[in-house]
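Dear colleague,

As promised, here are the two records you asked about, laid out in our usual form so they can be pasted straight into your sheet.

NAME FIELD: protein one
SEQUENCE, THEN STRUCTURE:
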Amino acid sequence: MSEWPGYTPPASGSSANCGTPPLSSYVNREAAIKAQYAADGADVSQEPPQYYGNYTIQKRNEPEGHGTPGVPGTPVATLGGAGTATVTWAASVPPPSLSYVIKPSTGAAKTVKPTATSATLTGLAAGATTFTVQAVNNLSSSAASAASNSVTVT
């Protein structure tokens, strides 16, 4: 199987093309990488990392990934089923490049994509719970939002 989608390397011993994929194969690979990043919720307006052997080369001209994101809006919590709550918030400005982290006052935090403005948390302990949301970049995090309204998880 070829590492480059749409490219078949020359037969063994052939000097044709010296085993280097044609330019169209590089373009196809970049499109495939961007499609996967988009499916994973990543910002595809930036060039994706390029992988060479055991090294990853990442462009460093992504200022939103290095500055501090803004503080998300105060979250609003609503109850779901048993041990479940849904939290919604206003996106931070500037937005995070990595993720949002939703932290309940009791229980485990949940990390979601940077494009999300709501999340459903499950497995919450019974009792009164509030939530905060924090925006996270590659090198820094925002302050946590104000606490949400209190909900009584059953």
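NAME FIELD: protein two
SEQUENCE, THEN STRUCTURE:
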Amino acid sequence: MSGVRADTTASLWRDRRFLRFWAGQSVSQFGDRITELALPLIAVGALNATANQVAWLTALIWTPNLLAVLLGAWVDHRPRKRRLMILADLVRAGVLLSVPAAYLLGAVTLVQLYAVALLTGAAGVLFNNAYPPFFVRLVPRSSYVDANSKLSASRSASQVAGPAIGGVLVQALSAPVTLVLDALTFVASAVLLGKVAVDEPPAASAEAAPSLLRRSRAGLSYVVGHPVLRAALGCAATVNFFTFVAGSGLVVLFASRDLGLSAGVIGVALGVGASGALLGAVIAPRISRRIGVGRSILVGSVLFPAPIALAAAAGGPLWVRAGALAAANFLSGFGVMLFDVNLNSLQAAVIPDRMRSRVAGAFSTLNYGIRPLGAVVGGLLATQLGLRATLVVAAVGGSLSLLWLLASPIPRVRTLDQVRATDPADGSAEGVAASAEGVAENTEGGAGAAGGGRSVARGGGPAGDRANTVRKSGS
């Protein structure tokens, strides 16, 4: 037995185990919004940090993802993935609590803040690599899209209300004290996770296990050799590169300098964008049922980056400029959720159990590792071409990520029942080929159903979130 939950028609609203996990993740997502505001404010207010020093705080949170491919290989051979997730939550809580403690003693330093960013980022990578095998034992296969929709909706809701709540708390309690609240959200997540029992398989034999480096290489080989995962990673990495070329910082600068919008108007426009993500997360399952999982991913891969061009083309009266920015953010937020919810569900369906953490590590290393490069290229393009031209490049380049999908079996996947996971011989070339062939056979077998929905697709219509968090950030 694989240990994965059998399919059931019961609603997730009546699944107490999932509801506990969802509650813990929802609470901690709101805590993340507090940290995103409080940590830079401590650096600036208490330590007079420069813009470059503040930027390093963000960079250090992402840096541990470069080693995710190794950590994923290690996690795959660990028993009790749930315990690793609980450990990651408790580590993040303890690290964050060190900041207000040092602040009260007058001993907080920039080096400490850098260490906090690095350690919370590393603990986040551990959590994310242990998450995939835990998820498939918590949620039945038939509910993958529904579960990812609910989890993504919580993240989107935190982005709508979180910054405002964080701002009020920082003003009322001070930035260091608000970090205590975020630490408590990680504790709450750990406690709720501790109450979610799942059937986890025993650990692999240490004597039979290949070396860590070989397992890491097997994870990368499996992704590259798998038609669905190769296309998914290529698409996600491409769209992430170009959306980071635009970057939230350049968008804000463009809105202020070129569009002449006030800070208040820009804030409202970005808030509207977050509401688009919330709507997208909520109705993604409905769209998936109507046009299919694969075509939902295709639509999302274009709808996420393309609206950046709408903002770049804005002009005319104030209400038109502000409306274009708000509409661009709304459509982009909707698109990224349509992309993430369905792609995360498809990946969960095609990855074999003992490869899940290795594949997650490979994805994190390549998909997240390319984001800082995109930001650097965006800065260079903005200097040479100007802000408006850079946003157009980001929109066009990001939309071209669709080409990865068109050459893969993904467009033919209408439901998750059409795909299956074939466990390779530890990622060997033969095993990867067998798994790829199995997926291709299943998607071809369901091509009739998918093909029959083409007119519906025309009529009806994870990238990863651009927010920098200390937790999972989309595909």
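A couple of things worth noting about protein two: The radius of gyration is 22 Å. The CA atoms of residues 210 and 234 lie 28 Å apart.

Best,
R.
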